[in-house]
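Submission checklist for the structure archive. All mandatory fields must be present; incomplete records are returned to the submitter.

[x] Identifier: Ribonucleoside-diphosphate reductase
[x] Organism: Streptococcus danieliae
[x] Residue count: 719
[x] Sequence attached
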Amino acid sequence: MGLKDLENVSYFRLNNEINRPINGQIMLHKDKEALEAFFKENVTPNTKAFASITEKINYLIQENYLESAFIQKYQPTFIEELYQFVLEQKFQFKSFMAAYKFYNQYALKTNDGNEYLEGMEERVLFNALYFADGNEEIAKNIANEIIHQRYQPATPSFLNAGRARRGELVSCFLIQVTDDMNSIGRSINSALQLSRIGGGVGISLSNLREAGAPIKGYEGAASGVVPVMKLFEDSFSYSNQLGQRQGAGAVYLNIFHPDILQFLSTKKENADEKIRVKTLSLGITVPDKFYELARKNEDMYLFSPYSVELEYGLPFSYIDITEKYDELVANPRIRKTKIKARDLETEISKLQQESGYPYVINIDTANRVNPVDGKIVMSNLCSEILQVQEPSFIDDAQNYVHLGTDVSCNLGSTNVVNMMTSPDFGQSIRTMTRALTFVTDSSNIEAVPSVVNGNRQAHTFGLGAMGLHSYLAQNHIHYGSEESLEFTNIYFLLMNYWTLVESNQIARERGQVFTHFEKSKYADGSYFDKYLEKDYQPKLERVKELFKDIFIPSKEDWQALKEAVMKDGLYHQNRLAVAPNGSISYINDVSASIHPITQRVEERQEKKIGKIYYPAAGLSTDTIPYYTSAYDMDMRKVIDVYAAATEHVDQGLSLTLFLRSDIPKGTYEWKKETKQTTRDLSILRNYAFNKGIKSIYYIRTFTDDGAEIGANQCESCVI
């Protein structure tokens, strides 16, 4: 039976029987039967056999499936020993969905697609050898972390590591456009190139002059940001990897930009086709001043980026609107228009109800806690990357007069469930830091010099987490409870501490720090003040019990780290970010990211083969009460959990809010009716802002007919 022959297989049928309860009981054992059948009927008979791993590697290199350079950094005997070590860990998939996702999306296949050339063990082996870059000890450590599913590289890294015919290892990119035609043209080319190699692209348009603004040397006026959005959308549609996927892009605009209403209207269902954008994601950057004006029900002024740049000599994104708002209002040389702040707030809520957009970046919040010199001006396609950028300036020959810094996202994730059983939590995180360091060091996106420049200066990565709800439920803790908040806070404190320790160690080994380290709060030691002033040891007995075998740094440990960092520096400018991982969490058999599950038994529509059912990991009679769907939960609990993690995360967390179109009575005390309203979304956004949340990703609404609005997601970060 070939891989493409699905006529006589039983595993889909067995999996579907999960959705047919008997005597009110979910038939969970059917998933195990489907898993066994999948290996018997699909994997085992269709896996190409080799006498040894050495023979397999030689074949893969000879047939151009595998690169040879990274293999040649090791002795064959070591590779055989490492492979034997991986086999001895006796890895097993725990669900049909996990195995199906891996073999369908990640396993290397023959060119005709009829045979598998690797299983999980070989994929782990090649990841470990590739990311260790010839270091045998690090290779064994990386293999140990991945095969025990404590560490999961992001899809581009996990999928492509070692392959001869591969895309980039990087998940996504951020680029900034300045207010001139050369920058627009260069950015469109950058979007084409970055989409071609596989990453989702975030683009800031906030610096562009508004519709109606003057154009020096020409009669007439500028067309504003909307036509530029259309150019980017067409670019992504064209550069779609030979039709394998839709090019993915997100555009960001400052909420005080005069084109903000037109920008938002491009996503409305009834928008004119001339302005409607179908595939671009929309995001807005929101300074604190907007929340103040909306709270007071005051007018708000929208300021011309063109006149602001003329007056201050800085692109619009680099003006602190909150600080200079009154000054901008009073200045007669600044072109401005006036609208009601609450009218705009209502428009945002309406669009979020209709489409899930826009993403919201609380830009002052992000910058206020940013320990690095410079300014954050935007985010990425999934709203978790928040890094400083410097604008580029380009002449008429398309040469860089000044080469600024843009961003590439190098992502990976811890698995909370398995990390909590790690024999050495700190060693696990330090190993992940080494693996991600290789990704950032080896990335070289030559087609976009500003991305190369940013990556070489910053050496950034984003290590996150998945499986938080799985861990809490399996330990009989309700998501959003006091125990869950304290657990989340300490878990991310540990990630922060150990990535700092290892980044400091790498800086010491290499004698190199990230650019402008000396201007950072790390260098002057002030970053560490909160860890020296507050006791972060667990207070709740349940949380103490969970961490009883795990080292939690004391104030003395933080003091020692502070002194080490001030002396030798940090290699990485940024280290932590939580992406909205999806399919990759199925392979890990845990809930996605750190948000709650949406269904106890999830129904997924898979191309060609129909529906697959995935019971929440660890679902059983005694855990069912703790697996509350996000759609049945007060979203303030989700915001509280994300706020607990945010305290220790130097970048962002991709926070999705889940609501029903008809909200169950009693969920929110302010509601007298069940129908979701724009006021609900406004209250939740303001609650998130007041809790110190840096970004809100999608608003996902579950409708009466079982559909989800705002459910489309970025493949680069999600899988």
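[x] Structure attached
Curator remark: Residues 241-246, 714-719 have pLDDT under 50 and may be disordered. The two ends are 28 Å apart (CA to CA).
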